[in-house]
Amino acid sequence: MSGADWVWGGLLALGAVVEVVALRTPQKGDTLSERTRDWFRVRTPVGKAVFVAAWVGFAGWFLVHIAW
Predict the structure, then answer these.
(1) Which is nearest to 35 in space by CA: 59, 57, 51, 49?
(2) Distance CA 45, CA 28 (A)
(3) Dihedral in degrees, nearest 10, Cα atoms 52, 53, 56, 60
(4) pLDDT of residue 29
(5) DSSP labels for the chain?
(6) Can you tell me the distance from the alpha carbon of 26 to that of 31, in angstroms, rounded to the nearest whole number?
(7) What is the per-residue pLDDT across 1-57, written as a single tens digit (0 to 9) for each?
(8) CB 24 within 8 A of CB 32
(9) What is the C-alpha radius of gyration for the chain, rounded to an integer number of angstroms?
(10) Cβ neighbours of residue 43 under 8 Å, at least 6 residues apart?
């Protein structure tokens, strides 16, 4: 494994730990999904449209980037 593999793996593991801790605590607003809703303001029509466009755009790019 290369150094980059260790860095990316460490970042993913750290993110997983943070999310598990957030899920186990009763504090509202500390999970990734709750933060994402706030960042994109998905409770408004414009925020919801921006989030959907960003998510679909990223997913399409990532699919092409990885598969081809």
Answers:
(1) 51
(2) 23
(3) -170
(4) 86
(5) --HHHHHHHHHHHHHHHHHHHHHHS--TT-SHHHHHHHHHTTTSHHHHHHHHHHHHHHHHHHHHHHH-
(6) 11
(7) 899 999 999 999 999 999 999 999 888 888 988 999 999 999 999 999 999 999 999
(8) no
(9) 16
(10) 37
Which structure tokens are listed for 27? 């504090």
| Residue keyed to tokens 């990316």 | 8
The angle at the Cα of 67, spanning 19 to 10, to the nearest 5 degrees, equals 30
Judge whether 50 and 37 are in contact, CB under 8 Å: no
Residue type for 57, please?
G
Q: Which residue has the tokens 């593999």?
A: 5
Amino acid at 51: F
